[in-house]
């Protein structure tokens, strides 16, 4: 799933070397924490959160077939 998120995010940002994804997994959920350069945060979130929503939709759809856990994508500082 991390590779999918990277494949979506890397072409959007100006500082691809600063993209980092951490995974926090519990018994019933998986949280992917996406860290980007502060100048790229707006590009990843998009106007009114449209890009972030699209990223989450793709990841949720792909994760639904892989995991039996709730999946979340957080965009952090």
From TrEMBL:
Function: A probable RNA chaperone. Forms a complex with KhpB which binds to cellular RNA and controls its expression. Plays a role in peptidoglycan (PG) homeostasis and cell length regulation.
GO biological process: cell wall organization; peptidoglycan biosynthetic process; regulation of cell shape
Domain of life: Bacteria
The entry's keywords: Cell shape, Cell wall biogenesis/degradation, Chaperone, Cytoplasm, RNA-binding
Assembly mode: Forms a complex with KhpB.
Chief location category: cytoplasm
Compartment(s): Cytoplasm
Protein name: RNA-binding protein KhpA
Residue runs in coiled coils: none
One Gene Ontology MF term: RNA binding
Cellular component terms per the entry's GO annotation: cytoplasm
Family: Belongs to the KhpA RNA-binding protein family.
Keyword Disulfide bond part of the UniProt annotation: no
Gene that encodes the chain: khpA
SUPFAM superfamilies for the chain: Prokaryotic type KH domain (KH-domain type II)
């Amino acid at each position: 799933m991390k590779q999918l998120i990277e494949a979506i995010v890397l072409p959007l940002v100006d500082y691809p070397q600063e993209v980092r994804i951490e995974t926090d997994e519990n018994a019933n959920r998986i949280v992917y924490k996406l860290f980007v350069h502060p100048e790229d945060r707006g590009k990843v979130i998009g106007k009114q959160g449209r890009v972030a929503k699209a990223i989450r939709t793709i990841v949720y759809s792909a994760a639904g077939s892989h995991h039996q856990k709730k999946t979340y994508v957080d965009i952090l500082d």
